[in-house]
Amino acid sequence: MNKKRIGISFTSTNFIHYWQWMTEEDLGDDLEIIKLSFIKNNKEEIATCHAFILTGGVDIDPSFFDGSKTYPLMPATFQAERDMFEARIYRYAMEQHLPLLGICRGLQLVNVLQGGGLIQDLGNGNTVHRKEREGEDKQHTVVIDKHSLLHAIVHTDAGTVNSAHHQAIDPNRIGDNLKANAWSSDPNHVIEGVEFSNKEAKPFMLCVQWHPERMKDRDSNPLSIELKRKFLSVIRNNKHIKA
Q1: Are 41 and 10 in contact (CB under 8 A)?
Q2: Would you kindly state where each structural domain of the chain is located, as residue ranges?
C-alpha cells in the first residue's frame, strides 16, 4: 500500500513535539510523516505530500507583510528562507486542494500569505500569552465562534489552551477570505484561530494560535485531540488525494 504523506515544516523550536504528536496508532498503515526543511531545502518533496502542518517558531520577516523593521522582543535574526519555503508549501496545498493545519507561527504565516498583517508585539504587559524564558507554556481560556468549522470539530464554546507567543494576527488586517473563529478571553481578545470565510472550492484549512501538539492534556482536551482526529480523517477521506 502506498502511504499518504503528511509534510511537517521544520522548526528549530520544539520540533520533536510536532513529530511525536502523530503517533504510530494515529498513522496506522496508510499514513506517514515527513520533515519538510527549509535548511535542507527539500522542496522537491513537497509534491510527494498529501497534507501539511505549518509549525511554530521565529517571527516572520516583517518584509513579508510591510511590518516595522524594529519592534520590542524582535529576534536577533529572521529566517526569510523559511518564510519563502513555507509559502511554497502553502501555495502548493491550496493549488492541489490538500488539507493544511497551521499552528502558532503557522497561523500567522497563513494570515500574511492571504494578504493580512500582524501585531508585532503584544506589549511588555503581555503576561497572558508569552512564555517566560525556559518556562512552561502559559494557560488561558479561549471562546469559540458557534458558527465556525472549529466549533463543529471541537463541539465546545470555550476551552483552556496553552500559549507561547508575543505576536498575533492584527484584527484590522485579517487576510483575504479568512475569518477569526476563536479569541482569548482576556481584555486583549487576541485572535486564536482562523479558517476560510467562504469555503466553497477550498481545501480543509484550519489554523490555531495555541500548541495542540504539546498540551499537557492533549490526549483528552478537545482543542488538541479533536483537531488531530479531524485532520487525519480529512486526509484519509479527501477525494483529491491519491497516494
Answers
A1: no
A2: 4-237
